[in-house]
Amino acid sequence: MTEISTNLPFDLAAAVTHLSNCDPCIARLVQEAVAFDPNIDHTQSPYEALLESIAYQSISGKAAATIFARIKALGANGGPPTPEEMLKLKTQALRKAGLSGAKILAMKDLAQKTIDGIVPTHEEALKLSDEELVERLISVRGIGAWTVEMFLIFRLGRPDVLPIHDLGVKKGWSVAYNKKHMPRPKELLAFGERWRPYRTVASWYMWRAFENAGYATTNKILPPKSKRKRTRPKATSHKAPNFAPSRAKPRRS
Questions:
Q1: Domain boundaries 46-154, CATH class
Q2: Dihedral angle of Cα 162, 168, 171, 173, to the nearest 10 degrees
Q3: Which position among 23, 109, 160, 166 bears the catalytic label?
């Protein structure tokens, strides 16, 4: 399928060419699947993007969209509440919007760490490496590595992110490479070395492989294979000839 033009910080055509040359499976997916397009919202600050990510955690997209719309309505200017506004909002108002207690604490911690400068502005984020951003952002309550990886891909458009714990990527890999089991995270990380420096685009095509296969197929994919434990050979016991019954009492160990 022809790649569409996107406003990305890297050369998408070069990425697709590299991946197609080093991996025939991705070359096939490029022709069959929807072209890479992270649909980056360039108007969102890191704070706003992460605020939305927290709202979307662990619930359906439709329910999360409704809740986030209510949260935005609490802002003074029609957008999400600013960090300062978020800290002033009462728990009851946020509960009424549909947030759980854990998400309220996470949003308020995000607001405080944005004010403190731990959560960078967009301009600052552009100067930080992926590793530096992960280190900073996972310090926010309720934000883990996966959330930061999604931020790196869908807000900053970073080219070399591989979400090794993402279910869609893992199952998509199993579909694409005709495997019965999902890969272990370390296995996927090692496999993904061939995709550098464009692991983000490769991840996109793993997601598309997962979607295109359908749940009837992906539900049959088994969990990762457990590692086989090395068994030590049993020591051969050499017993002395039993000429007479022993009368010695067993010693306590």
A1: mainly alpha
A2: -40
A3: 166
Residue 166 known to be catalytic: yes
Q: Which amino acid is at 168?
A: G
Range list for CATH 1.10.1670.40 in the chain: 12-39+161-218
* Helix residue spans in 116-166 (DSSP H): 122-127, 130-137, 145-154
Whether 152 contacts 177, CB under 8 Å: no
Q: Which residues of 10-21 are buried (b: 16+ CB within 10 A; e: fewer)?
A: eebeebbebbbe
Domain(s) of CATH 1.10.340.30: residues in the chain:
46-154
CATH architecture of the domain formed by 12-39+161-218: Orthogonal Bundle (1.10)
Mind listing the pLDDT tens digit for each residue in 204-227?
Answer: 999 999 999 999 999 999 999 987
pLDDT-derived band of residue 249, with 50, 70 and 90 as boundaries? very low
